[in-house]
Specification:
Length: 477
């Protein structure tokens, strides 16, 4: 049951009607039941994993808070981390590691072979695992107090708008909203409706139509035409943004209509002049989670090396882990390391070369910023090509084609026109958001302009939206 389906529309109308009719205590109970029903539409058997994570972290959080013994606290937080990562590792990475271990044995000439078997990847396991795990770690660090209200904590873990693809909420933000009465106003309802509609447009009109352009290129075998690969990479760069941002907007919109405020997950990530700023704006809930719970522990565990080398090693390890989080594949690890190298290079350049080019005039500064923004978009696009590749060799073949076989091909004009047609409204909106420094610039515009915008988007959705497309890309992570 995806947000862009008739089943979900019926589901949410029923849930929203009940939500208005109930008081806080029963609102939470109803939302908890609705969240498990929502998840069970994919596979009810894996609801037990959400329950396991909930029970484990609920009781571990209480035990950590109640104990003043450092060793006991460490033991309990270790149980929480190990329990969560064991479940995540078994379902997501077991086959990957066994296959690579068997490949290693074969390479060194050993006949030993581990048996692999098919394991279904539970929907959203990477998201709700990290969300619930941060709760016990924050309690261990004495950054928050646990709740004794099991229903409220269970709702925090399984809240259906952001259950399967984030944003990855922190208990400090979402749990207090679960525990207290929510304010539902017309302003919140209209803002939530705007976010949901915009997210639906991003997903159904832009992302799913671009997917029809991208998929054939990446499904093909070499030799490749470099220009076709380049256009497909540009198309995928917009596709994955619109797909994931579309989900996030719809999730935030649904939550907003019920009085909840979910964290911002994307903040104009393609309008950046350096890779560090990109990660401050792209998948913010994951990048900040990794910063707080992966980067910092690794950084403080590395000793006896100079500061710059220490930072570089930590960045590379962290980004490799972030890549692996996206999927059990060397492709994602390569993608993570690619971004790790860019982040290290960014630090070196900022430390040593930042004043080499520093225009004094306003026009010169804007031109320089625009050139850096354009250059960064190319680096991000190449990263997206790595992310989308089907196998490792394809990255090499496609890169070689873009360098040595960049030529016009039959259908190039049509492909360029389709990409421009599907993305023009997005680009126009984001330019205004960037200029006004306000992501809600459309909602705050004059009524006639708003009416024209919604009407145009509705027409495009109705006649050109791909409502029969696949699920959101990040459902597989």
């Amino acid at each position: 049951m995806v947000f862009n389906s008739l089943h979900f529309l019926v589901f949410f109308v029923i849930v929203y009607g009940l939500y208005f009719a109930l008081q806080l205590k029963w609102q939470n109970r109803m939302l908890l039941a609705a969240s498990y029903i929502f998840y069970a539409f994919w596979d009810w058997r894996f609801s037990s994993l959400i329950l396991f994570s909930t029970v484990l972290n609920y009781f571990c959080g209480l035990k950590i808070y109640q104990s003043e013994d450092v060793k006991v606290r460490k033991r309990i937080v270790f149980i929480s981390i190990a329990g969560n990562l064991f479940v995540l590792g078994f379902f997501k990475y077991f086959k990957f590691f066994i296959e690579n271990l068997n490949g290693l044995f074969q390479y060194i000439g050993l006949s030993f072979h581990f048996t692999t078997f098919y394991i279904i990847l539970p929907l959203g396991i990477s998201f709700f695992t990290l969300q619930s795990l941060s709760y016990t770690i924050d309690i261990y660090r004495k950054g928050m107090k646990p709740t004794r209200d099991f229903v409220s904590f269970a709702l925090f873990v399984s809240f259906f708008p952001q259950l399967v693809a984030g944003p990855i909420e922190r208990a400090k933000n979402l749990l207090p909203q679960v525990l207290t009465k929510r304010a539902i106003t017309f302003d919140r309802f209209f803002e939530g409706s705007h976010l949901f509609f915009w997210g639906l447009f991003l997903k159904v009109f832009i992302a799913d139509n671009l997917a029809n352009i991208v998929a054939p290129v990446f499904a093909a075998s070499p030799p490749y035409n470099g220009l076709e690969v380049l256009l497909a990479a540009y198309a995928f760069t917009f596709q994955i943004f619109c797909d994931f941002e579309g989900y996030t907007c719809m999730a935030r919109g649904l939550a907003k209509m019920m009085g909840f405020d979910l964290m911002l997950n994307f903040d104009l990530p393609y309008f950046v002049t350096n890779i560090q700023d990109f990660w401050n704006r792209w998948h913010i809930s994951l990048s900040t989670w990794v910063r707080d719970y992966v980067y910092m522990p690794i950084f403080f565990s590395i000793r006896k090396v100079n500061a710059n080398l220490r930072i570089s090693i930590t960045i590379l390890i962290t980004m490799a882990i972030m890549g692996l989080w996206h999927g059990a594949s060397w492709i994602f690890i390569i993608w993570g390391l690619y971004h790790g190298v860019l982040l290290v290079a960014c630090k070196v350049i900022r430390d040593n070369c930042r004043d080499w080019i520093k225009p004094k005039s306003i026009i010169g500064q804007r031109l320089w910023a625009g050139l850096r923004m354009l250059f960064m978009f190319q680096l991000i696009t190449f990263g997206m090509l790595i992310f989308r590749a089907q196998w490792g060799r394809q990255i090499f073949d496609m890169t070689r084609a873009m360098v040595f076989h960049l030529s016009w091909f039959d259908g190039a004009t049509r492909m360029i026109g389709q990409i421009a047609g599907y993305t023009c409204i997005l680009i126009l909106v984001q330019v205004f958001q960037y200029m006004k420094k306000d992501l809600l610039v459309v909602l705050k515009s004059q009524i006639p302009l708003r009416v024209c915008f919604y009407y145009a988007c509705l027409i495009l959705l109705t006649f050109y939206g791909d409502f029969g497309a696949d699920e959101f890309i990040y459902f597989q992570f």
